[in-house]
Amino acid sequence: MPIHFPTITSDFAPGTCDDGVLALDRFAPHVRGDGNAEPEMRVTQDLDLTGKLLIAMPGMGDPRFGNAVVFVCAHSPDGAMGLIVNKPSTDLTLRELLEQLSLERGPGARELPVHFGGPVEHARGFVLHGGDYSSAISTLEVNETFAMTATLDILEEMAAGRGPARALVALGYAGWGPGQLEAEIAQNGWLTADASPDLVFDRPDRDKWEAALSAIGVSALALSADGGRA
Hints:
The protein starts with 8 loop residues before the first helix and ends in a 15-residue tail after the last helix. Strands 1, 2, 3, 4, 5, 6, 7, 8, 9 and 10 form a ten-stranded mixed β-sheet that branches. With 230 residues, the chain is of the alpha+beta class. The chain has a single domain, classed as VC0467-like, CATH 3.40.1740.10. Strand 2 and strand 3 form a beta hairpin. The chain contains six helices and ten strands.
């Protein structure tokens, strides 16, 4: 399967507008593991989870999101888009990805996993990173702490030992249509938490789910599928 890291702004347009704002209507919402469309819910109040974490509840029913921690890159009445940050690929590393893209590694290139970012567009690549880096082509500034780049130049920089100080490489994304994420939260599918660079970038993937729960005062052992918002 060819990996898609666009090299020009127009190719990145399915995710962004010219002003760098994520155009959520251009991302496809995911469907549940049973093949049914997710329920929609009319948004009755302002809810902006951009830059937050979604923590999957045990009983959400979709194994692709089991114990998932999702960083929300953008959220608006048009929908939401995020990346799962705790599910590393078992058959692809950054070294192998760079080889597939014919990018030569320099002596300072880091060894990083490639994550399963979500069930939509598995061959589409994204790099979630700190706010210290901005692509000359296109970078979405999520907030002062986090940014996301989906163009090939960031991998060229990383292969040369440059680029952002902290980064998470992902293939695929999680997408929600209008009201879909709000409906899932109302049905106790997700808890929400603030995102910290230490948790997203530095914590071992196997520990991120419990760490995210702990950050909002929830014990993973005590959590049940019937629990409400914390």
